[in-house]
Specification:
334 residues; alpha/beta; Rossmann fold; 8-stranded mixed beta sheet; 29% helix; 16% strand
Length: 334
């Protein structure tokens, strides 16, 4: 291990809900650790240099901001952090990092699974199996089908690579229109989504939730999609106007949807989406593989070593944007 440059061991307040984070012994070798649940965070923050937010969606930092005067770095064990940011934190000099990239491959696999489920009508086969009915049907090929991936960060790019590997034609939609690159045929501006979605067989949402993206899939966007198009959401539930989606699916304006995230979450009992045959719903689990907690923990340990060494941290969030900006890849041949 590289010689640690910071002489004083940093104080790490580790916020957890059910169990402490993995690799606790490794963290304690590098820092003084104060384990705390939300109701004890104020005491743990007093004099702390680092907040390790293992309880990734807790609002406890905002609620205990007055005790955070000594904080220099906050790390969150999640990729989407916009809902955790607040004005005082954004204006502060605190470095904020997230877990971008750790779950990207798993989420991309889940999105491809959704495509296969819908193209091959796996839910229909399951319903027939439950009825003990042998009913031959045809299915849709995915080779040659087109997909628009909304969100061109690490998750969106991993989705594009997997979709491309099975012969799909993949474009992206990001903050600005720009030439295509090794992952996307072309990249549209997500501000023009209603005009952009026309003609695609699958529209896949993998964008972060920000003020700009909240409710981006609305009545106009859904009305612009092809009648045989499918919507996949592995991003955030609030990217989609739920009532507009419900109406589009009920009317046949679009052919189907696969939703790992919804709004509100969880979806209330009795909501129409639960009972629709053309809808697949999973409980916000697309990135949660059997070993994902260890993967998240390893990222923090690596960043903590970097912090002690004085090296640049991985995954620094632009707090004004609410996510880690992605450098633009060079276009093909560039």
């Amino acid at each position: 291990m590289k010689r640690l440059l910071r002489e004083r061991r940093p104080v790490v307040a580790a916020l957890y809900r059910e169990g402490p984070p993995p690799f606790l012994a490794e963290i304690e070798d590098l820092a003084e650790v104060r384990l705390a649940k939300a109701d004890g965070l104020a005491k743990a923050l007093d004099g702390a240099d680092v907040l390790y937010q293992w309880h990734s969606f807790s609002p406890a930092l905002k609620e205990n901001w007055a005790a955070a005067a000594s904080l220099k770095w906050v790390h969150v064990s999640a990729a989407g952090v916009s809902q955790l940011l607040f004005d005082e934190l954004i204006r502060s000099g605190i470095t904020y990092t997230n877990s971008r990239g750790v779950l990207s491959r798993a989420i991309a696999e889940f999105a491809l699974g959704f495509v296969l489920d819908m193209a091959k009508d796996a839910p229909g086969s399951f319903r027939l199996q439950q009825q003990q009915r042998w009913q031959h049907r045809t299915s849709r090929k995915i080779q040659g089908q087109s997909a628009l991936v909304v969100g061109t960060g690490s998750i969106g790019r991993e989705i594009a690579r997997l979709f491309g590997a099975v012969g799909m034609a993949v474009d992206g939609a990001g903050r600005a229109e720009r030439p295509g690159d090794g992952d996307f045929g072309r990249i549209h501006s997500s501000a023009e989504l209603a005009r952009t979605v026309q003609g695609y067989d699958y529209v896949v949402l993998a964008a972060p939730l920000t003020d700009r993206t909240r409710g981006m899939v609305n009545h106009d966007v859904l009305a612009a999609m092809k009648p045989d198009a499918r919507l996949i959401n592995v991003g955030r539930g609030e990217l989609v106007h739920t009532q507009a989606l419900t109406e589009a699916l009920a009317s046949g304006s679009i052919a189907g949807a696969a939703l790992d995230v919804v709004h509100p979450e969880p979806l209330p009992e009795g909501h129409p989406l639960w009972g629709m045959d053309n809808v697949i719903i999973t409980p916000h689990m697309s990135g949660d593989t059997e070993d994902y907690l260890d993967d998240l923990g390893k990222l923090f340990v690596d960043n903590l070593v970097r912090y002690r060494n004085g090296d640049p941290l991985h995954n620094i969030v632009d707090k004004s944007l609410g996510f880690v900006p992605t450098p633009e890849p060079s276009p093909p041949g560039g």
